[in-house]
Specification:
Layout (H helix, E strand, L loop, with lengths): L7 E6 L5 E16 L6 E12 L5 E9 L10 E7 L26 H15 L3 H18 L7 H10 L5 H18 L7 H37 L1 H5 L1
Antiparallel strand pairs: 1-2, 2-3, 3-4, 4-5
Helix pairs in contact: 1-2, 1-5, 2-4, 2-5, 3-4, 4-5
Amino acid sequence: MTSPTKQQMWVLCPACGDRHTNHRVLHEKVEHIIDGPDGCPVADEFHRFVECMGCESRQYAITRMQIEGLEHWEREENTLKLFGPGQNESHTSGKKSKDRFDDEDDLIPAPVMQMYQETCQAIRANIRTLAAGGLRATVEAICMNKGITGGTLEKKIEKLEERGFVTKSQGELLHEERFLGNAALHEIEKPSAHDLIDGLHIIESIIDTTYVAPAKAARLKKKREAKKTSPKSAGG
């Protein structure tokens, strides 16, 4: 058995709530796709048995990389099919996958939630340039929700920091989203799948600390204070 060309790869994991997670490549086989009388390969198809490095569930992943007409540095793999436990076949762009905040959408402003969900859909469909733009647009939606609408996105993020909506370190993370979106939209530079997943995790952490966690804390506080004023508490 030869060693796999990839030791790890990002794959959609059903057991982790249909989220992209890092997977260990356990076994790999490469098939050369031949088209034409010259016998030259036009693409490589990779068949891999992978294991999630989070939940340890295993899947069979098939990806394809176009070779013909592309320089070495231009070649990228695209996921074709995933086969996992309890399912015959799962296309990455097929069924509606569950996003992280689907059960908490009532805690997140509708415009922010909409941009986040559309970005997740673009990532699953492997529309990378639009996905990067979606990450940037989600940052814009957060700024708008906080009443910050004037100037460039760079200035808006600075105002988020100044007004205490995000910390300085969180502001630096938002700038990375801005850079990723700018490169995709202004320089037509397609980001890697890994960069998009990193960007998605960043925006999810910001949404969590800005909206979800405070809302849950307020809910706990309300319950605690209600217990203090209840007749049972007063009598005890």
